[in-house]
Inverse folding.
């Protein structure tokens, strides 16, 4: 079985408020269950609740794949409870860094005066590993990962997780060029069962956001149509997009592509 659950769906900054209830206010955190292996995608604020759930379910090992190390994708890591438990094992991997290591980045945000608890306080067996975006590797028997570089300030990595003949792609924090479909993205998502795509803006909003490193829900539709994707899930919602705005975006997207979902905290997709 291959399944996906969302624990954080916002971009840029967490926004808990009465206007961000139906979709959620936590930043990027996803969980993929691939047979008996658990794959975590990004460590935004949503990973706090995900960590509690893993403890409740008695899950003691898995892999954490990071798209990049901007705050909204890593600042939940110091609150990942399994990381503080002896006897727990997690691989932590990233492919966007041209120099340094992901361990150094995560340790750096857990230093005084910005954070009082150092990385060394995490007693789990944490195996940190850097690769190059574009690499492919096996996380566990039967769990294959393909990656691709994305167009984002300081770089980012897109992922395709394959298991038992099914595939889920996670493509966020990437900026498109209007009229020029991103070939890296198209190659990664071709024929995928589910694609989670950076839909931070609308095409109209995008005109004033060029260079900020994000895409639109309309580009998501265009790419998924071109790549014969079975199901699209809009993701990385702008903090300015309230529940009512997200409802309207979802309705517009489904009018163009009826299988489209809008990521919400707690949403489960089973393949």
């Amino acid at each position: 079985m291959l399944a996906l659950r969302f624990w954080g769906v916002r971009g840029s900054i967490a926004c808990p408020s009465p206007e961000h209830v139906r979709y959620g206010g936590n930043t990027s955190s996803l969980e993929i269950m691939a047979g008996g292996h658990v794959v975590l995608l990004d460590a935004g604020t949503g990973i706090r609740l995900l960590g509690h759930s893993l403890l409740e379910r008695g899950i003691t090992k898995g892999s954490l794949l990071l798209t990049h190390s901007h705050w909204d994708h890593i600042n939940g890591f110091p609150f990942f409870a399994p990381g503080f438990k002896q006897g727990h094992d997690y691989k932590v991997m990233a492919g966007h860094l041209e120099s340094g290591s992901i361990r150094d980045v995560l340790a750096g945000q857990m230093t005084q005066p910005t954070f009082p608890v150092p990385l060394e306080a995490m007693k789990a067996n944490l195996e940190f590993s850097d690769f190059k975006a574009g690499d492919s590797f096996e996380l566990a028997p039967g769990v294959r990962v393909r990656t691709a570089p994305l167009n984002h300030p300081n770089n980012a990595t897109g992922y395709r997780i394959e298991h038992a003949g099914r595939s889920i792609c996670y493509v966020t924090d990437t900026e498109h060029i209007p009229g020029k479909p991103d070939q890296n993205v198209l190659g990664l998502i071709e024929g995928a069962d589910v694609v989670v795509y950076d839909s931070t803006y609308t095409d109209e909003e995008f005109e004033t956001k060029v260079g900020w490193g994000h895409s639109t829900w309309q580009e998501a539709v265009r790419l998924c149509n071109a790549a014969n994707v079975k199901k699209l899930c809009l993701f990385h919602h702008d903090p300015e997009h309230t529940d009512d705005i997200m409802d309207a975006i979802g309705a517009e997207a489904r009018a163009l592509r009826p299988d489209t979902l809008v990521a919400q905290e707690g949403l489960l997709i089973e393949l």
Q: What stands out?
A: The helical segments are 47-56, 71-74, 102-109, 183-189, 203-206, 217-226, 243-256. The longest helix spans residues 243-256. The domain at 2-270 is CATH 3.60.15.10 (Metallo-beta-lactamase; Chain A). The mean pLDDT is 97.
